[in-house]
Design brief:
The structure is a homodimer of 312-residue chains.
Chain A: H1 3-15, H2 18-25, H3 29-43, E1 48-51, E2 54-57, H4 59-86, E3 91-97, H5 106-116, E4 120-126, H6 129-137, E5 143-147, E6 158-162, E7 166-173, E8 183-185, H7 186-190, E9 194-197, H8 203-213, H9 218-221, E10 224-226, H10 229-237, E11 242-246, E12 257-263, E13 267-268, E14 271-276, H11 282-294, H12 296-305
Helix pairs in contact in A: 1-2, 1-4, 2-3, 5-11, 11-12
Chain A binds a DNA duplex (30 and 30 nucleotides) through residues 4, 17-19, 27-35, 37, 50, 52, 55.
Chain lengths: 312, 312
DNA sequence: GGCTGGCGATACCTGTGAGATATGGCCGGG
DNA sequence: CCCGGCCATATCTCACAGGTATCGCCAGCC
């Protein structure tokens, strides 16, 4: 049985007349008669009563027609759903990101994406950079935002693009001697109790700090370790010491704290967007489009990575 | 888009391999490639990713496949449902009947039909014979059980078969002088207060009584009128008089009453089964089959009415 | 009662397209 | 570098969907 048979049966039921139904279907009457006859033979029952007053479904025909309607609806919906999924209007996007990404690029992008693609299910997973890289390679994520270019096994299959640039800034409590001054020198930091991000969770920042302060700096080894930016700021606000973190921290002002530049200006690993070069889902492309329009420079980098012919 | 495309896409998704899927479908590989390509062109999107490791649905393909599965299920169910409806295993049977039919032929037949055809919705409507005839003609009933051959406009379109034969019997209270005697003569009845069925609801019985007792018998005009058999028996039990009714009454024994024959034996209008000659639904045929096996003589009469080639 | 007109079924022809066979292009493994 | 597996392409063929012509049948209707 083919979809054609269902369409013809429905048209016949609607027009109650072979000739008119055939006309509506754009075919001649004899082929319609034959197709209906074939259908009835296949089902094994007469589906229509041919009377002088018109052609009407039998009891069996009525049962058949209600199923046929649903079947054709499903077929039409299949094409529509597939097209929508291909345009990235539906589906799922699994995003892994380092917590601090919630400060600067994500709120804007997530808000706009949620508005533009309300039917895409966004799955957000906060995780450290090395974990999100592994999850990308394992196919458990579609997109990751982390610190620095992804490293490790399989990282070469990933496309990665920096989003924004960061440098080191310091945060202290409002009562700290540094409060009010625009900058603090790295030499001063060496003699202060420091608060830094965990080297285990964020090796990229830890590496940058070791480079800045010296490989085995006692200031570093004695530093208080915090697992995220908010904790660093919190510690600093309590007067635990001088918090060190990316300039993205400035997007999270907190009363009773003071931010100042660190001299010399020290670039930190960039926030990097990455995803698998193959297997890019339409939802991911849609997300990249949102980023493209939001941050033109990131868009340019993306286009460069994915080839000059545009996305997919 | 045809059902073939859906079947092919599902087979391809299942086997993840063009060659093997084609084999399972009983066709060669190139036609499958072409059909899938045509499908993808029609939907407007690539539905399968061809990799060295196998052929896997894209996101759009997955959305398409889930709809396709449901569509094919509906198509299969359409054929099954139609066949079941044609065999009378599903559907609806609207039965109009005179209340007294619940005494004798109906309990058996309804019980058996309900067991044999649990998925047929039985709609039972108690009504007088002339109303059920009109409802049959108007197409509001599929089957009617009434007294005597149907009369009135359109009655000639009906097929009607008697089920069982009735004669007049009398019912009195256990304390009545007639109680204990096997028979009562019609002449005795003329001098008794009588209880009879309403001539408006059941003209067939009223006519028989007029014939028996005389057209303008004062015993009849002064008789107590009851609307159904149970009321006749109830009146008799209260000593109101001598109840007269069909021998089917014997199926409704009631403590404190006595039934006796009326002499001479007076045949009453038969209980008659009728339905429209055309428009016989499969459920109706199934019901007639049950009657056929339950009452062979009725079956024989049915076969005679519907032609010797059996039902339909 | 014969005539006519409308409708569905049948007969027969035609052209499209589903499917078969043969082959090419591409990549991955030996 | 060659070989083998896999999908795509090219070409042919035949089945069948669909077209035209016609028939059979019944209902009005002069």
């Amino acid at each position: 049985m083919e979809a054609r048979h269902l369409r013809y049966a429905l048209a016949l039921a609607e027009h109650e007349h072979f000739g008119r139904a055939a006309g509506a279907l754009g075919i001649a009457q004899p082929p319609l008669s034959k197709q209906i006859a074939d259908l009835e033979r296949e089902v094994g029952t007469r589906l229509f009563d041919r009377t002088r007053q018109g052609v009407f479904p039998t009891v069996a025909g009525a049962a058949f027609l209600s199923r046929a309607r649903r079947a054709l609806d499903e077929i039409a919906a299949a094409a529509v759903d597939a097209a929508r999924a291909a345009r990235g209007e539906t589906g799922r996007l699994r995003l892994g990101f380092i917590g601090s990404a919630l400060l600067e690029p994500l709120p804007d992008v997530l808000g706009r994406f949620g508005r533009e693609r309300p039917d895409v299910r966004l799955e957000l997973h906060e995780m450290a950079t090395n974990r999100s890289t592994a999850a990308l390679v394992a196919g458990e994520l579609d997109l990751a935002i982390g610190l620095g270019r992804p490293r490790g096994v399989g990282a070469e299959q990933l496309v990665s693009v920096p989003v924004g640039h960061d440098h080191l800034v310091a945060v202290v409590s409002g009562t700290h001697p540094y409060a009010g001054q625009p900058a603090v020198d790295v030499d001063q930091l060496r003699r202060q109790p420091l608060i830094v991000a965990s080297g285990k969770d964020e090796p990229a920042i830890a590496t940058a700090l070791r480079t800045l302060l010296g490989k085995d700096s006692p200031a570093l080894s004695g530093a208080t370790v915090a697992r995220d930016i908010h904790t660093i700021i919190g510690f600093a606000a309590c007067g635990v010491g001088v918090g060190l973190g990316p300039s993205r921290m400035l997007a999270a002002p907190r009363p009773g704290t003071w931010f100042c530049e660190v001299t010399p200006r020290t670039p930190l690993p960039d926030l990097v967007l990455s995803f698998t070069a193959r297997d890019r889902s339409p939802a991911l492309n849609a997300f990249l489009d949102v980023i493209r329009t939001n941050c033109p420079d990131v868009g340019a980098a993306l286009d460069h990575r994915l080839g000059p012919r545009g996305p997919q």
